[in-house]
Every structure is written in structure tokens, then in C-alpha cells.
């Protein structure tokens, strides 16, 4: 039998610590080795207990969660799951934590919200599986000024739309990819698994860092060049539809698909139908299989499809399944994905053919 995942809970609320303990101890694959009411006590427990995974509150006395995370990732790196409130300020700080190397985030569980219990258990088990890399952030802070705007000058001959799907590890991955996008990129639609209210903060952060405009998408909006659109977390599926000569967004309520709402499968399936071969599909790091079916539909419709490779994926789940079903035409390292997205457009401009391995 595999050893249980050993977890340290850090939260200044005794009630919340009990709720988290209750949620995690229901799974026999998880063992709670300690609870800490503040980061100062938590540091001592990390040294003495050596937990596999840490759940971490954002706002605590003596030291906030971000400062604690930075210190842990520097001295005793291990997976840290942020347990955050569903507030604008809580979401913004959680996005910062994910960019600083946190494994993933969940909304603070409550006795009325069983879904958050399920998410927390699933992510703790994945974090403790040993099939990932705890690491410091790979990109500069969003407070640093971005470079002067650059364009590819591709005109109307580049693909009409780029569709990207990501989950666990997606914040860092998307920062890496999108900060290499030119100001005149094709309209880009993204489904990133994230709680409600978090995606707006994520879009705002990316908008400060990237050449194109990044925004949380709204319903029935034309998709235009130089814009990146992120699906709202937890509420609707994002679809792309053809309306006249343009592509347009649709936000659709409905049941979860492949375990998620919004679902990467839904997004990519709609892009396959709306844009056919005039699109690029990209699957990034994440747990599960969401996106494999949709990316396969894009590939069969003639689109170029790209998958993040195992070596650079925090969780090689979604890219692995997509590759195994034949949806991924080419696997590349994270820092090469942006170049690969636009390589085909450049090749088309030059009249050459891009060969996929």
C-alpha cells in the first residue's frame, strides 16, 4: 500500500482548521500531521514534521500567506495549496501565490459546499503524488514594466483563433506563454480551471504583463485581433461561434463536462466547429482529461494542435491524455509554446509548409 499523503494545515481560524481536517481525513489516502494557527508556528512544524503537502490560508497574523510561501519555496520547497476566500482581494492575492509557485488553489470550504471539499481532497492527493515539481516562479513580477509593444505583422493570413486549455499549474504556464505573445496576436480564448471570481483577477494580472489586451470574456462579444479572452471561473462554459464574418463568444450555463465548468472540451469543440482548420489548439499542464476530446476534434477539423511536454508540466495529466488519444500533433517545452503557436502562421506567410513531428 502507498503511504498516505501527510498534510500540515495552516489557518488562523480554529473552525476552518476543523472543516479542512474533516474534509481531508475522510479520505484514507490522507493523514493530517499537524495544524498551525500562524506562519511562525508553521515554520517550526514544517521542520519537525516534514509534511508532504501544506494547505495555507492567505490572511493570517504575524505573517501573510504570500511571505510564508516565498520563504517555504526558498528554504523547504514542497507543494502548497492556497485555501482562499471568494473575495476580490482574496482572489488577487491567491493569483499572486500561484505565480509565486503555489501548487493550486481552492475556495475556502464550508459545510454547505461539498464541491470545494472534493476539489481540496483531489488536489491534496495530486500534490502528494510525487509526480510534480515544487519550484519558485519562473517569470518576473507583474510590477516590472513590460517591453515596448511588438507585432508579428502577420495580417489576415494567420489563424483566426487560438484556443488554450489549462488547469493545475496553469497560472505559471499561461504567464510564460502569454508574455511572449505579440500585440497583434490572433484572438485567443482560454479556459483555465479556477474558482469563480478568481479569473477576473488573473485576467487583470495578465493584462498588466502582456502585449495584447487580456480580459475576462463577456457573452456575445466579437473576438478581435490583439485580445486574449479568459472564461469566467465556475459559472459558464465558454464557446466560440461563427456570426457573419466574425467569431463571437458565448457563455452557456449547463452541467459540468469532463468534470469542469467551464470545460476545455466545450471550448475546443466549439472552436473546431466555428473555425475548422483555421485555428491553433494548445493543451497545458493540469489534472485529469479535460481538453483531450475537444483538442482531438480540432485536430480532425484541420487545426494545428500543441501539447506541453512532460518535463515542463507541473501535472502531466491533461497533456498526457490528449497526446495518448492522438489529439496532440506536437509536444514542446513550455518556453517554446508561444513560438510554436506562431511558427505556423509565419510559415504560411512565407508560403512554406510546417511539418509536425
Automatic annotation (TrEMBL):
Q: Where is this region: Disordered?
A: 128-152
One cellular-component annotation, GO: cytoplasm
Q: Which SMART domains does this UniProt record tie to the protein? A: REC
Q: Which reaction does it catalyse?
A: L-glutaminyl-[protein] + H2O = L-glutamyl-[protein] + NH4(+); [protein]-L-glutamate 5-O-methyl ester + H2O = L-glutamyl-[protein] + methanol + H(+)
In Pfam terms, one family for this protein is Response_reg
Q: Where in the cell is it found?
A: Cytoplasm
Q: Which residues form the active site?
A: 167, 193, 290
Domain Response regulatory per the UniProt entry, residue ranges: 6-123
Sorted alphabetically, the Gene Ontology BP terms of this entry are:
chemotaxis
Per UniProt, residues of the CheB-type methylesterase domain are: 155-348
> What is the top EC class of this enzyme, as a single word?
hydrolase
Q: What PTMs does it carry?
A: Phosphorylated by CheA. Phosphorylation of the N-terminal regulatory domain activates the methylesterase activity.
Q: Which GO MF terms are attached to this record? A: phosphorelay response regulator activity; protein-glutamate methylesterase activity; protein-glutamine glutaminase activity
- List the HAMAP family hit by this protein, alphabetically: CheB_chemtxs
Q: What does this protein do?
A: Involved in chemotaxis. Part of a chemotaxis signal transduction system that modulates chemotaxis in response to various stimuli. Catalyzes the demethylation of specific methylglutamate residues introduced into the chemoreceptors (methyl-accepting chemotaxis proteins or MCP) by CheR. Also mediates the irreversible deamidation of specific glutamine residues to glutamic acid.
UniProt-listed NCBIfam families: PRK00742.1 (NF001965), PRK12555.1 (NF009206)
The family assignment reads: Belongs to the CheB family.
Protein name in the entry: Protein-glutamate methylesterase/protein-glutamine glutaminase
Q: Which organism is it from?
A: Nitratireductor mangrovi
| Lineage of source species | Bacteria, Pseudomonadati, Pseudomonadota, Alphaproteobacteria, Hyphomicrobiales
